[in-house]
Design a protein that fits this description.
402 residues, mainly alpha, 3 domains, 74% helix, globular
Length: 402
C-alpha cells in the first residue's frame, strides 16, 4: 500500500508539473516578448525541462520507492515549473492581481532546483552518499538551501522585476544588508558543486559492475551538455538552443536508463562510438578545410573562390580516407579507453594466426579453452565435440579378368 501511495503521489505531481509547464508556455506566447526566436526557443526548452524530470522522477519513485533520486527529480521539476509560471506572470506587471506575491514566489521557487543539481551527484544512483563520511556534505548543502530560502524570502526586491517590492521583504537598511548577505551565500555555490563532483568521482573509483555502468550514464550525459555548451559558444555563435536541448534530454534520459537499468550495459558501446565518430568527424573536417584552403590558394589565388575541381578532388580524397581513418581511430580508442576489448581482439587475432599452423588436436583444445577464458572470462568452460561416424570407403567392383 505504501508503494502504491508513493506511486500515485508521484504521478499526481508529474501531471501537475505538466499542467504548470503548459500554462507557463501559454503565458509566454501571449506576452509578446521582443527577444530573438533562438532565445525564446532556448527559454521554452528550459521551461519544458520540468516535464522529463518529473516523468523520470515518477517512474523511479513508483518502481524504486526507496531511491531518493526520484524524489529529487520530482522536486526539481516542480521547482522549475513553479518558477517559470511565477516569472511569466510577474512579467505581466500590474495586469496580474497580486503580482507582488507572485514575484515573491519567483524569488524562492528556483532554490529547490539548485538543491537537486547539487545533491544529485552525491546521491546518485542508489539515493545514498558514497559513505557515511559524505553525510556532512549533504547536510551542508541542505542547510545552505534553507538559509538561501530564508534570505530570499526577506529581501525587499523582486529578482525578475527589481521595480516591484516584495510584500514580505524587510524595509530600509535591513533589507539591503540581507541582499548583501545573499550575495555572499551565492559564493558558496562553486564550493558545493566541487564537493558534489568530488563525491561522484570517489564513488566511481570505488564502484564495480552495475553501479559503475550507472555512473557512466550520468557522466556521459554531463559530457553531452558540456560539449553542447562549448559548441554553442564556439561554433554556433552563442545560439542557446544546443545546450538547452542537450540539458532537456541528456540528463533525465540518462538517469532513467541508469536507475531503471534499461539496456544498462549499452553505455560502453555508446561512449566508444561517440569518441570514434566524434574524432573522425573532427579529423576529416579539419583535413577537408585545410586541403581546400591550401589548394584554393595555390590554384585559385588569394581571396578567390577555389576551383570546382579542387573541391571535388578534396571531397573524393576525404571520402577515400574515411574508412582507414575510422579503423585507426577505433584501434586507438580501444587501446586507450577499452583495453579489455583491445586485448581480447589481439588474443583472438594471435590465436587465429597460430591456428593455421597447429595440427595437434589435444594442444589445440587446450589453447582454445585458454583463449575463451582470457577473452570471455566465463565461470567455467569446456569443449565438447560430436563424434563423427566412420564412413566406409567406396570400393570399385571386382573384375575377375584383372
Amino acid at each position: 500500500m505504501r508503494k502504491q501511495t508513493a506511486a500515485r503521489l508521484a504521478w499526481t505531481v508529474c501531471v501537475f508539473v505538466a499542467a504548470l509547464t503548459v500554462f507557463a508556455l501559454t503565458v509566454d506566447l501571449l506576452s509578446g516578448k521582443p527577444e530573438r526566436l533562438a532565445v525564446r526557443i532556448a527559454e521554452w526548452s528550459f521551461t519544458t525541462l520540468a516535464v522529463p524530470l518529473a516523468v523520470v522522477g515518477a517512474l523511479i519513485t513508483s518502481r524504486r520507492p526507496g531511491n531518493r533520486v526520484g524524489i529529487l527529480l520530482l522536486v526539481g521539476g516542480l521547482s522549475i515549473s513553479v518558477e517559470k509560471v511565477a516569472e511569466e506572470l510577474t512579467s505581466y506587471g500590474v495586469r496580474v492581481p497580486g503580482v507582488g506575491l507572485i514575484g515573491w514566489v519567483s524569488n524562492l521557487a528556483w532554490i529547490p532546483s539548485i538543491l537537486m543539481l547539487l545533491l544529485l551527484p552525491v546521491l546518485f544512483p542508489d539515493g545514498q552518499p558514497p559513505s557515511p563520511r559524505w553525510r556532512p556534505v549533504v547536510w551542508a548543502i541542505v542547510a545552505g538551501a534553507v538559509v538561501t530560502t530564508v534570505l530570499a524570502a526577506l529581501i525587499p526586491r523582486i529578482g525578475i522585476e527589481p521595480s516591484l517590492r516584495s510584500p514580505l521583504g524587510l524595509p530600509g537598511s535591513a533589507g539591503v544588508a540581507l541582499e548583501r548577505v545573499l550575495r555572499l551565500v551565492f559564493l558558496g555555490l562553486p564550493v558545493a558543486a566541487v564537493a558534489a563532483m568530488a563525491a561522484m568521482i570517489v564513488r566511481f573509483r570505488r564502484a564495480r559492475g552495475v553501479e559503475r555502468q550507472q555512473l557512466k550514464w550520468l557522466a556521459y550525459a554531463g559530457g553531452v551538455v558540456v560539449v553542447a555548451t562549448v559548441a554553442q559558444d564556439t561554433w554556433l555563435g552563442g545560439w542557446p538552443v544546443a545546450a538547452a536541448t542537450a540539458l532537456l534530454w541528456a540528463i533525465p534520459v540518462a538517469i532513467g536508463v541508469a536507475i531503471l537499468r534499461y539496456r544498462l550495459y549499452d553505455i560502453d558501446r555508446i561512449i566508444n562510438r561517440t569518441l570514434v565518430y566524434g574524432l573522425l568527424t573532427m579529423l576529416l573536417g579539419l583535413g577537408y578545410a585545410g586541403m581546400v584552403l591550401v589548394l584554393g590558394q595555390l590554384f585559385g589565388g588569394i581571396g578567390d573562390q577555389p576551383p570546382g575541381w579542387v573541391i571535388a578532388s578534396v571531397t573524393l580524397a576525404v571520402a577515400a580516407l574515411a574508412q582507414p581513418a575510422r579503423r585507426r581511430i577505433q584501434q586507438a580508442v580501444d587501446r586507450r579507453f577499452n583495453r579489455r576489448r583491445y586485448n581480447a581482439a589481439k588474443t583472438i587475432e594471435a590465436f587465429s594466426a597460430h591456428l593455421r599452423d597447429q595440427v595437434d588436436f589435444d594442444t589445440l583444445t587446450v589453447e582454445l579453452l585458454a583463449v575463451v577464458n582470457h577473452t570471455v572470462e566465463p565461470t567455467s568452460s569446456s569443449l565438447w565435440l560430436r563424434s563423427q561416424p566412420q564412413r566406409e570407403r567406396p570400393t570399385l567392383p571386382h573384375n575377375p579378368e584383372d
